[in-house]
Amino acid sequence: MKIAIGGMKKNEMEAAIKKASDGKIETVITTDIGAVPMLKKGEVDYYIGGCESGGGAAISILIGMIGYSKCCTVAKNGHVAKKEEVEKFISDGKIAFGLAVDSIDGTIPVLVEALLEHQK
Amino acid sequence: MTVEFSALNLIVVTLLCAATALMAHLGVAVFHDGIRPVLPEFIEGRMKRPEMASVAFGLSVGFIASVGIAHTVATGILNPWLLFLTTDVLGIIANRKWLAALLGGAWGALTVSALGLINTALTSLPVDFIGAMGALSDPVVSGFALFPLVAIFMQFGAKKGVTATAITFIVRILIVRFTTIYVESIQIFVGVLLLIIFAIAKDTQSKLPKNEEEDNVFTERIARIRKNVVFLMIGGAFIAVACNIGVFAGSEVSIYTLAEAYKTGNNALVSQAALAEFMRGLGFIPLIATTAITTGVYGVAGLTFVYPIGYLMPNPIFAAIGGALMILVEVMLLGLIGKFLGKFPSIREASDSIRSSMTTVMEFALLIGAINAVVKMGGYTGFFIGAMIYFINEMTGRRIMKMAIGPVAAIATGIILNILCVLGLFVPIA
Questions:
Q1: Could A52 and B345 be called an inter-chain contact, meaning their C-beta atoms sit closer than 8 Å?
Q2: Which domain holds residue A48?
Q3: Residues of B in Cβ contact (< 8 Å) with A53
Q4: Which positions, given as ranges, span the membrane (chain B) (predicted)?
Q5: Mean pLDDT, chain B, as a whole number?
Q6: Phi, psi values for residue B222, rounded to 5°
Q7: Which residue has the higher pLDDT, B305 or A77?
Q8: I want to staple A56 with a disulfide (CB 3.0 to 4.6 A). Which of A15, B8, B33, B407 is the partner?
Q9: Residue B323 C-alpha from the chain's centroid
Q10: What is the pLDDT of residue A77?
Q11: Which residues touch B123 (CB under 8 Å, ≥6 apart)?
């Protein structure tokens, strides 16, 4: 599995994904716009982006370019992602995930776990 | 705590908020970058108003409650999170144009009135609250000036980061020793210059394939923004006037410095705030321009350059003209900006690093400032209260944003110390 990372605090995001997946997930640091062709060509499976609210800079370009139905906010500002919600997003076919940068530590392990389980 | 309640403030903020709520209602412009791309879903009929309203509310409520309130209570100056995020939501909830304008205007009037009341309440407290809030803003200017260096570390790694730090440090030492110039401005200039040089050098080396197909898709969306330009210019004029009369500031990077400047009458600080706001604006261009180009919905404050124009203009009339013209220029240049960003992907990436690093340095500066403020108010009893508020937030899932926790802790500590003082359990130290 390969994930493109865009938005804010990319280094922190990448480290969190590597740690949570024990190196099982490949990552590539890019920008929101840079991730769009990667997703379209199938070079990456998912996109994860951070911003202050989890729905703004993180995924706004993705919503505009790959469609609202493929994007979601997994953790809004002041919240941490819930496992059931994340599982539902993934099974609904969402491929671009936005989260609030303050919630990286809490949310990435949940998201990574759900993605790895979905892959099986 | 410098803004007195006045009829001019009331009228300007009421009209401003009525205009921004109406713009959100019509889908012309919204402040929240996350609401912008969802709006076409609503405009084009794939999403219903209540659902759209709940998205808008969900994305904004945390900001309004934390940064929106904290920055304003700590400085006595209104901010866009408090005003415009609310008018985004109100404009979307309202099902009629007049209702949108009415609700927006009412919110504006309410905030200005509340500001007057808070100001009166805070000046009469036994433990000095207002002086302490000055301590909160002390580290902001120097802290903010470090953002280009943090951004270089983030984007280009340790080697370039250390080089840039060494160069900037040498420049700082020489300027402080041999001149009387405001050193932070020069530091920011040198740092940003290095960041741009590194970014362009990387792009010319890598030669990525160009993506030309995007241009045509966006022409229609840009045309929609151009059609609304007069409306946007009116909004820009009101914002610049509100900045000019000192009742409103554009962001955390300027609001604390402006509060200090208005209190002390130091004009050099106003220029410093305008520079910081301008730099922040540069960092936000790629985000706001690209979301606007891809959605056809503009930002309420445009590319945010109307803020520094408002601070610097000699009077409200010039500010109004400057604000309106700035928006006109921005809208006309949108297509060009989009093309330029397509050619230099590292500049886009630099924008992400700049926004991340500005957040990092401001969180740091406001936390240090908050600790200074609580110690100033209540010695290490103040420290006990303020530090515990910070740790409780950290340990319980960070419900209050990192950017807001410093000011929130300082304000809460001030309130608690004053209650203790009234109860006779605490004696003011200064």
A1: no
A2: 2-119
A3: 32, 34, 59-60, 62-63
A4: 6-31, 101-123, 129-154, 185-201, 229-249, 284-306, 318-341, 361-392, 404-427
A5: 90
A6: -65, -40
A7: B305
A8: B33
A9: 17
A10: 81
A11: B1, B130
